[in-house]
Amino acid sequence: xxxxxxxxxxxxxxxxxxxxxxxxxxxxxxxxxxxxxxxxxxxxxxxxxxxxxxxxxxxxxxxxxxxxxxxxxxxxxxxxxxxxxxxxxxxxxxxxxxxxxxxxxxxxxxxxxxxxxxxxxxxxxxxxxxxxxxxxxxxxxxxxxxxxxxxxxxxxxxxxxxxxxxxxxxxxxxxxxxxxxxxxxxxxxxxxxxxxxxxxxxxxxxxxxxxxxxxxxxxxxxxxxxxxxxxxxxxxxxxxxxxxxxxxxxxxxxxxxxxxxxxxxxxxxxxxxxxxxxxxxxxxxxxxxxxxxxxxxxxxxxxxxxxxxxxxxxxxxxxxxxxxxxxxxxxxxxxxxxxxxxxxxxxxxxxxxxxxxxxxxxxxxxxxxxxxxxxxxxxxxxxxxxxxxxxxxxxxxxxxxxxxxxx
Length: 407
Hints:
20 strands
């Protein structure tokens, strides 16, 4: 496993495929995504939004900094301590946000919701900042700028189970697509014995922990009670997934929070016309986009499925006389949003194929005299080998379906 892990090291593959880089002038734990890496990140982000857009979520945006008072109210200032990045403005002191939830609380607070409006669901893939120790930083797996695919739901107590069920369905669909559902388990993370580490009363915690366990049972989750792993404001369901070589990663999370609505004095008008405190459910599907990308690079050993691949197909003309036709094929594919490269170098066909393999390109299309004459391409796959000669419209249909289906 250690040997296989070395081959799959996301830092090595990331450099080989030009996915991300780092700079000492920018600092440790602050990776830079290259164009290839940004394609993968954007595809993951768009897929996550597609799973939420049909479930009643609305996108929001919040600033990267806030006044210290926000995090003193939320309790994050005391919780994160020296992990916070502090910014001195001309007049006020600011903190670079370590979490998105306090910002989302302010959006909710600016509205006058009734029970008919509940649940209210916010979605924001937003970057937060934590000053992790430099010795703990590495590649994409441990960073100081963390982009969470974050979401917060404000609901009534009786809606918790249904909302958690919706989130679980999204998690299952996402990780089935990623090929990581086999052997998963869920940590039902509750308070530890030292209750001074947590906000809120015993009554609130018992209600929150019980609500999550009820939802876990209702959804048939393979869960275990783990004491002392709760967030400081509430219990969690942390989803643990195994990668291709059996390593375990904590990725998705669902957190039930009765405390922050209390601290921010949030309310909606209930059926009796009175103010009632909402429950907040925090959820992240990928955990963080940076860490999830690092995990996926190693899980797939850089062999991304077609829909995620930065370059989906390379056109390989055998000689200069085939370049014009190859360019035509490239244009046709680009017009239907297939990511394509044309290798018009003077290398021999064998070298061109080796280059495509080294970049872990899913498909390449060879073009010679027969293909020009017949109006076709000869398609090859990185693992399936030679697929054969096909018309251009057949190629477009094949690739388009595979991309749409996220095979």
